[in-house]
Amino acid sequence: MVVSVLSYLTVAVMSVDLGSEWMKIAIVKPGVPMEIVLNKESRRKTPTVVCLKENERLFGDSAMGSVKNPKSVYRHLQSLLGKKHENLQVALYQKRFPEHHLQEDPVRGTVHFKNSEEMQYTPEELLGMVLNYSRGLAQDFAEQTIKDAVITVPAFFNQAERRAVLHAAHIAGLKVLQLINDNTAVALNYGVFRRKDIDSTAKHVMFYDMGSGSTTATIVTYQTVKTKESGTQPQLQIRGVGFDRGLGGFEMDLRLRDHLARLFNEQKKSKKDVRENHRAMAKLLKEAQRLKTVLSANVDFMAQVEGLMDDIDFKAKVTRSDFEELCADLFERVPQPVQDALTAAEMKLDIEQVILVGGSTRVPKVQEVLLKAVGKEELGKNINADEAAAMGAVYQAAALSKAFKVKPFLVRDAAVFPIQVEFTREVEEEEGVKTLKHNKRILFQRMATYPQRKVITFNRYNDDFVFNINYGDLSFLSQEDLRVFGSLNLTTVKLSGVGSSFQKHADAESKGIKAHFNMDESGVLLLDRVITYSSSAFSSWQSFNKCLVKMYIHERLAFTKLLLILPICLPAKEEKDGDKSVNTEVEKKARPQKKSKISEEITLELLINDIVDPTADDLTSSKKKLQDLTDRDLAKQEREKTLNSLEAFIFETQDKLYQEDYQQVVTEEEQEQISAKLKEVSEWMDEDGYAATTKQLREKLFQLKSLCKDMFFRVEERRKWPEHLARLESLLNSSSFFLKSARLIPEDDQIFTDVELNMLEKVINETMMWKNETTAEQEKRSPKERPVLLSKDIESKRTLLEREVNYLFNKAKFAKPKPKAKNGTSTDKSSKANSTAEENVSPPIEESTDTKSESSEEKPSDETPSTESTLDSQSQPKEETATTGLYTTPVN
Ligand SMILES: *[C@@H]1O[C@H](CO)[C@@H](O)[C@H](O)[C@H]1NC(C)=O
Ligand SMILES: *[C@@H]1O[C@H](CO)[C@@H](O)[C@H](O)[C@H]1NC(C)=O
Ligand SMILES: *[C@@H]1O[C@H](CO)[C@@H](O)[C@H](O)[C@H]1NC(C)=O
Ligand SMILES: *[C@@H]1O[C@H](CO)[C@@H](O)[C@H](O)[C@H]1NC(C)=O
Ligand SMILES: *[C@@H]1O[C@H](CO)[C@@H](O)[C@H](O)[C@H]1NC(C)=O
Ligand SMILES: *[C@@H]1O[C@H](CO)[C@@H](O)[C@H](O)[C@H]1NC(C)=O
Ligand SMILES: *[C@@H]1O[C@H](CO)[C@@H](O)[C@H](O)[C@H]1NC(C)=O
């Protein structure tokens, strides 16, 4: 298998391939390597949707079923993440889902859904609900709790969009091991299963992924590389990405839906315009989606919706060429991502294969156009177009988790959007004239690999200054893409304390200010720290080598930091010739000066220029909001469960009162009482039950159960007697037989003492007596009375006897066979008796650790008891004698 378990920590990890319409979930857990999670309907994919009803939430397929009230159904949430209210994509969303009321957040400029004053939700909160639901599905499937996840995002997600997904996961209480680009996850899955085919020759593969919401073309290079840590390993590198944010199956569905709406209006069966009716449009969308799928395999199809609007049925024939005409402009957009990916990769079409990914590549026209564009014989259909991303992501989750050992597969992802640092500095030109000079430094160029750390050094500053982190040259984006992209400015960084830091070490030479950046595994840019460096000749600073504390709180999620600065002093740089004792003036002059490097972390103020992150308070209140909804859902489920139990109890008990088992044990009076109470509660349910609280329902159930408890007990006991008595009987028989056999062992070979055998006899006698007396007593009683013969007593008597027999049985098993008297001449009887006792308490010899049947076969003695089937021989005599005085102890 691809993934093996490293430790037996019971930690499962999950992946969510979070598509705009569907999500696929996969898990890895010890013993279950890489598996797609089935949802409650046993399906392998789940709609990315939440339905918020007045008093409960629905998810997945049941949420999609709510066409009756489209306003309560929230979906395609990704397109709103990290977007301001004025963004083109928000307008498009509003157009596609006119039933929703999107409102601008006054602080962040983003949008939230306003259903009513009480019901307002941000896209992050709604996505958080969906993510928590996905976790619930994974947990049910894995049968354990899961906290860690790898979540996919489209490769074209920018910084604000990525952070929004992280916020959603945070609200859901998920720990994100990594946001992985969905195309990279697909490429990883592809590579992992073709590990053997990867060698030192670079192979280029293109993945063409058309999903519901967007399309991405990705060029990936596979080859083996040498690593320091683990030798030669396969690697994938993302070389070029081209994308179309709006090209996907959903737009096709909408075109078909609108076509159906037109056809319905043309049929003039209703005076109203169907397009004004959200519910009817939701029904048409559902039918359009079915239609698109059918038209992938058939040339025409009869679309139909019963009771579309005002009880009017709708029926119309749609052909594949109708469909292709409706989407003609969309199909024209198919080749562009391929071109863009090649341009980004600076490659010609020298790729081996073009592989199809994503559900919408099933549309025949898409394949036709793509095939022409890439000029290949055929398109690769050799991966699971739906599940490759979830599987690749869960492989990565296993690789990142400590609990699994996976074969290394190096992943070098690439930043789709370049990022640069900009700053403006006063420069002095001739004769004291000062002018401002604007500087740019590329931090991550287009297609720069990540994760990666970068350091930028500012050499010419000796006082506080400001620099900006912005996106770099995005001229490769279309005008429309740029409008959807949002702010081109990321963060303004204000440094304070630079001057005082340098002044503190006035004798030292400034070595510049370094800003340390990190683009992490998730493709999120972080500014780790900014540090001033100076170097000085050995001075009093040399002694500043004590315990210096550097403290900072790094709020990674929000890309903001609070820095509490204490000076830190890095150890002096390595001294060249190591002659530390000689430290004189003369030496200093004669040789290169020994330098001490002083570094100090600078306080930062970060101003976010793209989308302001939610504050810690915002996140806390979002979490609470979700938790309240979850609690409400759980309370509702609990109430339904209690209601069902109560109904079932009444129904079943009424039925039981007519069964013979019950009639036999119940008095007339008791029966009347129970019947009356059942009737009473049943009537109460019909009248007040619907409004009753869970507590009230529970109380009613409790009352009924208490009333019927004794009756049930009597029935239960009578049912258990035969089996319990039979088992006791059988043990009595076999232990008597054992006792008899043991007594027949010739004195020379005897391994049991008299005390032991008498003890066994006593227990047998007592048990038999108890059984005789108790059953006799029970027979005198009426079945309508509480029984005296109790199954739990029978069981405890049996256990007691069983232990006694087991003790002796094990003693026999672990005793060393003695030389046969016939053969031996030397053995003296009395010493034998003594040594036997000792051997009995010694640890079992090797062969004794084998199974029962084997060891009995090996025993030379014929006297081995034949009662094995009823006896448990796991315990050893030594333990038994040491732990308790209940059993007879071997004595001489
Ligand atoms: C997430 O779902 C689990 C059940 O799977 C629930 O116990 C938990 O409270 C939920 N968390 C939130 C924030 O809703
Ligand atoms: C974005 O950054 C550029 C360069 O730093 C700056 O000139 C421009 O004013 C910034 N725009 C905004 C809206 O902050
Ligand atoms: C009692 O045990 C013996 C020997 O194991 C067996 O032959 C006999 O059938 C058993 N009798 C009953 C009533 O179980
Ligand atoms: C067990 O019972 C038998 C007969 O019922 C009796 O002879 C014997 O002495 C009793 N043994 C013990 C140890 O009580
Ligand atoms: C128990 O009853 C059985 C059969 O009824 C009888 O054979 C046996 O001797 C009795 N044993 C005791 C200890 O009363
Ligand atoms: C006794 O046992 C030994 C070794 O096991 C064997 O050599 C010898 O012949 C045996 N003697 C008798 C009388 O069986
Ligand atoms: C056997 O044990 C008895 C009683 O403990 C003791 O008197 C006797 O000396 C022992 N014999 C040997 C050979 O150890």
DSSP helix fraction: 40-55%
The total domain count is 5
Query: Could you tell me which ligands this complex binds, including any ions or cofactors?
Result: 2-acetamido-2-deoxy-beta-D-glucopyranose
> What is the name of the CATH topology of the largest domain?
Nucleotidyltransferase, domain 5
Q: How big a fraction of the residues is strand?
A: 15-25%
CATH architecture assignment of the largest domain? 2-Layer Sandwich
Features:
single chain; 892 residues; alpha+beta; Nucleotidyltransferase, domain 5; Actin, Chain A, domain 4; Substrate Binding Domain Of DNAk, Chain A, domain 1; 5 domains; six-stranded mixed beta sheet; 33 strands; globular; binds 2-acetamido-2-deoxy-beta-D-glucopyranose; nucleotide-binding; HSP70_C_sf; ATP-dependent protein folding chaperone; ATP binding; chaperone
